[in-house]
Amino acid sequence: MFFYELCSIATELTTLANNHDYLLSGMAGPMKSKSDKYRGKIEDFNTLLIFALVLDLRYKLDYVKFCFGDLFDDNKVNKMTFGIKDNLIQLYDCYKGVDNISSSDQVSSSIPLANEVDAGKF
């Protein structure tokens, strides 16, 4: 929910800052700059939170693309979502490698070696 709210606020502030009404744009401009100062830019957002959003069954990567689509042009959106997808694939490959190593250790430790087998037990 945090990512959705963050994108909604950023979209509203950007829209109001670019409004033709000088009163609205005069208020929203400083609010947007303060928001960017304290929160940081959306493109520099912590990718682990975006990973959690992508792995949530309700949202997936298309939702992230949709939220970014309100804030950035299509080229930047595709570049950002490709980077997120690539990082997720790397994370999966790393996890898969660790899982293979730990499962091979468990199998080898559960199978007794020939010199460890007691002839009387078998």
Note down, in words, how this protein is organized:
With 122 residues, this protein is mostly helical. It has one domain (2-109). It has helices at 2-17, 22-39, 47-55, 60-71, 74-110. The chain is elongated, with a radius of gyration of 25 Å. Mean pLDDT is 76; it is low at 113-122.
Brief characterization of the structure:
GO terms for molecular function: DNA binding. By secondary structure, the chain is an all-alpha fold.
List the helices and strands and how they pair.
Blueprint: H1 2-17, H2 22-39, H3 47-55, H4 60-71, H5 74-110
Helix pairs in contact: 1-2, 1-4, 3-4, 4-5
Rg, Å, rounded: 25 Å
Estimate the helix proportion, in percent.
over 70%
What fraction of the residues are assigned to beta strands by DSSP?
A: under 5%
> Major β-sheet, in short?
none
Would you identify the regions where 5 or more consecutive residues have pLDDT less than 50? 113-122
How many structural domains does the protein architecture include? 1
What is the straight-line distance between the termini?
A: 59 Å
- The ordered H/E elements are HHHHH
The coarse overall form would be elongated
Give the overall pLDDT as a whole number.
Answer: 76
The class by helix and strand makeup works out as mainly alpha
Q: How many helices does DSSP assign?
A: 5
Quick one: how many beta strands? 0
Oligomer: single chain
GO molecular function, one term: DNA binding
Organism: Dipteronia dyeriana
Protein name: hAT-like transposase RNase-H fold domain-containing protein
